[in-house]
């Protein structure tokens, strides 16, 4: 990423960094804000609608590896997760396009920002860092944008995976036809949103979000949908404090899931005849449509059926008796305490997840 050469911008940035250190203390080796975080790996799969909005590489290829970071706010590396100052939470996604080539989405869990300019942000930091709570309250109350931001912060989340994240800067998207539109990202959890009341939050441990995330990942991947709210003519696109009307069009850019789909698309790209299976007609039809879009001459057939059942497996084998390569991305689990899983359930999980390819 090229560094700025505007001396005024550089000076302002240094003042903001000094203010962060004054507020949170020096913590060498850590980020000045959102210091406490965790890095994960995943896969981004574009939706069929993504190419209508942008010609970006990750929107038109079958899948893209991503690096994702969840974080608490402030520059304090050991801030307790249930500290109110740990909001808003952060989520950043890096799309790894090639070696040393990437593009990013940076988002947080408040649908808003307290200021419009960098100079206003410095003033905001100085205003809320005052030692007298009454003066802080007076500052926020006298600055409508800051007040709206504070009010937009949601209660503490039950999980990083059950929070919504907002990219506040309007980005310019250009599709293959040269049509450009501005839009803002919203990252939506497929598990739904869940927040804690004050009593529940107070009872949590200092690392409850990170511990919960590790436990959740041990059971399976977490999934988000990346959507873009598209601006219309006349909408303000250079001020993160201004919201667009809720009725603006929203385009689903893609999702973080889709390992099986990504393999199918790459096999189709190599010229293989591909049979796509899913539990529902809609799922396999959507997958075929996406593969046909990104691989125009793809040879794709579909089969809808739950292959954890003997009937569906037998029907599949009857329709497609000759297969050269079988990719088994089928997997099941039930989130429950370890000691509550019976031997019969363990056997079923193993047979479906690991032995289904031997049917």
Helix-residue proportion:
25-40%
Q: Mind describing the biggest β-sheet?
A: 9 strands, antiparallel
**From the 3D coordinates, which CATH architecture of the largest domain would you assign?**
Beta Barrel
> How many domains would you count in the coordinates?
2
Average pLDDT figure: 87
Alpha-beta classification: alpha+beta
CA-atom Rg in angstroms:
24 Å
Sketch the topology as an H/E string, one letter per element. HEHHEEEHHHEEEHHEEHEHEHH
Unreliable stretches covering 5 or more consecutive residues:
none
Number-wise, the strands total 11
* CATH topology descriptor of the largest domain: Catalase HpII,  Chain A, domain 1
Question: How many individual helices?
Answer: 12
CATH superfamily of the largest domain: Catalase core domain
Shape assignment: globular
Q: What fraction of residues sit in β-strands?
A: 15-25%
Tell me the distance between the termini: 50 Å
Which class of the largest domain in CATH terms?
A: Mainly Beta
Question: Could you outline the blueprint of secondary structure elements for this entry?
Answer:
Elements: H1 7-24, E1 37-46, H2 50-53, H3 57-60, E2 64-71, E3 90-98, E4 101-108, H4 118-128, H5 133-141, H6 144-152, E5 165-166, E6 171-174, E7 180-189, H7 198-202, H8 208-219, E8 224-230, E9 250-255, H9 259-269, E10 273-278, H10 281-294, E11 299-304, H11 310-319, H12 343-354
Parallel strand pairs: 10-11
Antiparallel strand pairs: 1-2, 1-9, 2-3, 3-4, 5-7, 6-7, 7-8, 8-9
Short description:
The chain has 12 helices and 11 strands. It has 359 residues and is an alpha+beta fold. The chain has 2 domains: 33-110 and 153-255, Catalase HpII,  Chain A, domain 1 (Beta Barrel); 259-358, NAD(P)-binding Rossmann-like Domain (Rossmann fold), CATH 3.40.50.
């Amino acid at each position: 990423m090229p560094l700025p050469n505007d001396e005024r911008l550089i000076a302002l940035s240094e003042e903001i960094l000094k203010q962060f250190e004054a507020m949170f203390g020096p913590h060498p080796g850590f980020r000045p804000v959102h210091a406490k975080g965790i890095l994960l790996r995943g896969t981004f799969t574009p939706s069929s609608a993504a190419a209508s909005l942008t010609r970006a590489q990750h929107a038109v290829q079958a899948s893209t590896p991503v690096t994702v970071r969840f974080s608490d706010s402030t520059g304090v590396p050991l801030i307790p997760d249930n500290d109110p100052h740990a909001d808003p939470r952060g989520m950043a996604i890096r799309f790894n396009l090639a070696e040393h080539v990437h593009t990013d989405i940076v988002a947080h869990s408040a649908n808003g920002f307290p200021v419009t300019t960098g100079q206003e942000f410095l003033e905001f930091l100085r205003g809320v860092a005052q030692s007298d709570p009454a003066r802080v309250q007076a500052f926020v109350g006298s600055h409508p944008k800051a007040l709206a931001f504070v009010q937009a912060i949601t209660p503490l989340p039950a999980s990083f995976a059950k929070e919504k994240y907002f990219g506040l800067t309007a980005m310019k998207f250009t599709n293959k036809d040269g049509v450009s539109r501005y839009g803002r990202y919203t990252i939506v959890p497929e598990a739904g949103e869940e927040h804690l009341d004050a009593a529940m939050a107070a009872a949590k441990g200092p690392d409850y979000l990170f511990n919960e995330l590790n436990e959740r990942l041990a059971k399976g991947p977490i999934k988000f949908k990346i959507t873009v709210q598209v601006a219309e003519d006349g909408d303000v696109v250079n001020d993160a404090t201004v919201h667009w009307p809720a009725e603006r069009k929203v385009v689903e850019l893609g999702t973080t899931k889709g390992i099986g789909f990504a393999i199918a698309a790459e096999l189709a790209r190599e010229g293989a005849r591909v049979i796509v299976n899913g539990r529902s007609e809609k799922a396999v039809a959507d997958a075929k449509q996406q593969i046909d879009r990104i691989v125009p001459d793809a040879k794709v057939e579909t089969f809808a059926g739950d292959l954890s059942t003997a009937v569906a497996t037998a029907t599949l084998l009857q329709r497609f008796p000759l297969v050269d390569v079988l990719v088994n991305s089928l997997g099941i689990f039930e989130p429950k305490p370890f000691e509550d899983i019976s031997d019969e359930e363990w056997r079923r999980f193993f047979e479906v997840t690991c032995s289904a390819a031997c049917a």
